[in-house]
Each structure stands twice: as structure tokens, then as C-alpha cells.
Amino acid sequence: MSEKISILIADDNVQFGNLLQEYISRVSDMDVAGIARDGLQAISMIKSLKPDVVLLDIIMPNLDGLGVLEKMSSVKSGNKPSFIVLTALGQDIFIQKAMALGAGYYIVKPFDMDVLVSRIREIYKYKCYTLFNHEKQQLKKKTFQDSHSFKHDMETLVTNLIRSVGVPPHVTGYQYIREAVIQVIKSPNILYSMTKILYPSVAKKFNSTPQRVERAIRNAIDGAWKKGDLKHIESTLGYCPNKIRSKPSNSEFIALIADKARLSLGIE
């Protein structure tokens, strides 16, 4: 939107339209983008000029004001102007119809010009507020979708890594390792508090105990090293066994999987 409030006047009364243009042009924060003399011209000028606010008469040739509102009702809210209906028709049926079709205000002629200026500012401010909230909601939605997608990618990658090193899904330790790795990816520092934080956190999720979690993870790692392809495991995880210990500890194994996943996901 521009700095000044851009206004389109849609009224077939030439004298009244010119009077409106002259008065509004003297208002410092408003600018008259154009004057439409009938409904069809109003539709065309709305599309080409993209005004912020349209001052719309009901009785116009070719297409009346209600017809303009009907045609504009199918346009997305962020791309259409706000409408203030200015008319000598004060019957409730016209007012209700105009408001139902999306008019923001309905002012019956004759009226005070200062009141009109005040209504233009109010409806413009409301449009900006609504648009801002819509964009904020869209951003939140996108952020949620992105985070949901990232979570799915992370869980899939961790699952594939654990299976690739020979930990089968049916063993109890599998689900504990998977959960532990995901938690470490999110918060790497908990690796330094395996017994105080990580094991209890995993145990709580699966209604188990820290001791059972630790033991099940150990058994799963032992099983993978006994039955798996050691060269593949070592190349996948980058683990180099030494003379004292041929298998990684629980914390080392979880750290290796987590590091591999973080690198693949591009997390620093």
C-alpha cells in the first residue's frame, strides 16, 4: 500500500464526484486515484488502479453499486479495496444488502465531509490491521508446515540410520535409541547428562525406567555389532574401534547417529 490512502470515486453524478475529488485532494494523507462514472468503469478502474478505498454510489448506469460489490466479492480480500457506500437510498434493505456484500460503511447523502474523511481513515486502518493479521497467520501456518516437514524428515532419517547399522525395529532398544537420538539432535548438550536427563526423559515417554532404557540400548548395540556388517557400520558412522573396546558406548553410539543426521539435515 502507498503512503497516502488511494481512493477511487464511483459516482455518475459529475458535480458530486468532482466535489468529492476537490475536497479529498486537500486532505494531506489521501489521494484520489480516479473517478468512475458507472459500475463497469468502476470494476475496470479497481483492477487497474488498485485503490485502498472505493467511495461507491448505489444508483449508477450499466452496473449499479450492488452489482460492483457482487463482482468484487469473489476477489481475495488482500487484493480488493474497502468500500464505503455513499447514496441517497436510506432504506434498510439496501443497507443490509450492501453490508452483506462486503461494504465497510454505508453513509446516506447528504453527509458531513469531515465525517466521510474520518470513516475513510477508520476503514483503511482496519484494512491494514486485517491484512497484517492475515499475513501473520499465513507466516505462522508456513512456519508450522515447514517445522512439521523438518520433523518428518528428521525422524525418517534417524530411523533409516538406525536400521542401516543393524538395529532391528522389533528389539526394545530400537525405539529407545531412536527417541534418544532425536532428543540429542534437538539438544546436543544432554549427551553430557545421560543418566540424569536423557535416560529418564526417554523412559518417561515409554513408561519405563532409566535403568531399563540404558540396558535395552546396550543390548541393541551389542546385537548390531554381533550380527551386523561391521565394515558397513564403521563406514556409515565413522566409528573406529580400538584394542580396548570394539563397540561404542551408549553415548558414543547415540552421538554418532545424531551427528550423522545433523550433517545430513544441514544443522550446524
TrEMBL record:
GO molecular function, one term: phosphorelay response regulator activity
Binding site for Ca(2+): D11, D12, D57
Keyword Translocase assigned: no
Localization per Swiss-Prot or TrEMBL: Cytoplasm
Domain of life: Bacteria
Database matches in InterPro entries: CheY-like_superfamily, Sig_transdc_resp-reg_C-effctor, Sig_transdc_resp-reg_receiver, Spo0A_C, Spore_0_A, WalR-like, WH-like_DNA-bd_sf
GO BP term (any one): sporulation resulting in formation of a cellular spore
Pfam families for the chain: Response_reg, Spo0A_C
Entry note: cofactor: Binds 1 Ca(2+) ion per subunit.
One of the record's GO cellular component terms: cytosol
Record's keyword terms, sorted: Activator, Calcium, Cytoplasm, DNA-binding, Metal-binding, Phosphoprotein, Repressor, Sporulation, Transcription, Transcription regulation, Two-component regulatory system
Chief place where the protein resides: cytoplasm
Domain (Response regulatory): residue spans on this chain: 6-124
Keyword Manganese among UniProt keywords: no
SMART domains: REC
Residues bearing PTM 4-aspartylphosphate: D57
Cofactor(s) it depends on: Ca(2+)
Function summary: May play the central regulatory role in sporulation. It may be an element of the effector pathway responsible for the activation of sporulation genes in response to nutritional stress. Spo0A may act in concert with spo0H (a sigma factor) to control the expression of some genes that are critical to the sporulation process.
Identification of the protein by name: Stage 0 sporulation protein A homolog
Organism in which the protein naturally occurs: Clostridium thermosuccinogenes
